[in-house]
What does this fold into?
Amino acid sequence: MKNYIKVIFIIAIINFIELSISNALSKAYIIFPLTFLFYSYYVYKSDENINPIEAFLFGLFVDLISNSYFGLNAILFCLTTYLINIYSNSFKLFSNLQICIFFGLSAASYVGFTQLILNLYNFSYLTLLVSAVFNIFFCIFIALISMYSGNLINIRK
Amino acid sequence: MTRISPSTGQKIIYLFLIFLGGFILYVDINTNNFQKIKNGFNSFQISTHFFIKSFSIDPIMDFRNHFQFKNKLIKENKELHTALEKSYVEKYLISQDSKFFKDKKFLEELDQNNLNKPFHMAQLKNLDPGIFNCCDKHRIHIQLLTESNESLIEGVVFNSSGVIGHIIHEMNYKEVMLLTDVSHSLPIKNVSEDFYCNARGSGMSDYLICNYNPLISNKEMEIGQNFLTSGFGGIYPKDIKIGILEDIKVIDSNNTELKIKLSSNPLDSILFGVINF
It folds into this structure.
């Protein structure tokens, strides 16, 4: 329970940071789903499989705090959790670069889905492409930091 | 530590939850059933923000101001700034008086210095500047500075630069749908009153989009021409300047798109006027 509250608190803070920087980044055609990436990292780093109901509730919570339609993040968080749980053992065979590309592309897919729902009239492939590249590089950057300075945040269950 | 792949039971739960999420998403997009929860949460968020700020940042700022013996000056400056912004809003309303108030009653009330009666002053409470660049949904939250028991749903919201939208929900704070929201539709006309169309929000800041069939209306459009409200929607008064034509895009032989740059900007000031017809 304590861990859930901790994760919810971190998600709320990260979502606040995401919303704060989104305006500046959008001028460079970048959408940076920091909350989604954090959640993916949390599922990836977890020692046990994340319960689907837990994923769904985290998604609903993100929907509420990010003022998006209810169900949008719930679906995407469920899908990500499912994918990461399925490939959790295969990840051990992958290189760090491959894992970074996986998370970067999943973040780009998240951007694509959310843009289809939230911003259909101004959907931009340029934004999608630039966001994908940015997110992949961000994941690589985080991986490099973790490699050279150990685990920054301990959110393991 | 090895993690076990999801079992068949878990896969069924995933599938069920994804369908459930899809259903909730569909209901939320097509109905307003979750609006109360969202508004309640927004009210809670805004109130908490101001509550925490009043106990954390404000005392520090006040102490600093007191320490520097500038608090009086700052207060006066704030009051002057507020009065100036209020006067801008009032000036806009006076300049549009014949359109907002056809019976001229408003001017009589202005003479008696009874400004609170014809319209309400409101203050910006919540605005996410990011929405102007990312999303179809352009909304802000405002709070009335004057107490009012009347319902202000569909009340027109304006600032010193012009009309910015109308109120769609009211709880502790009023939710304003801006003109640029993609679900917003505004009946407009040109100055010579021989062209009418419904301008919808573009989802981009500062722009409205107006589609029409050139085979039906063969009026020649010129870049830079002014567009006004037609008054047909019943929410906005007639003949209020909305913006100028910036771009004409011929989509096909049956569809031409006009891109209208708004003359008003919701980010211009933190004070707004609200008027209900």
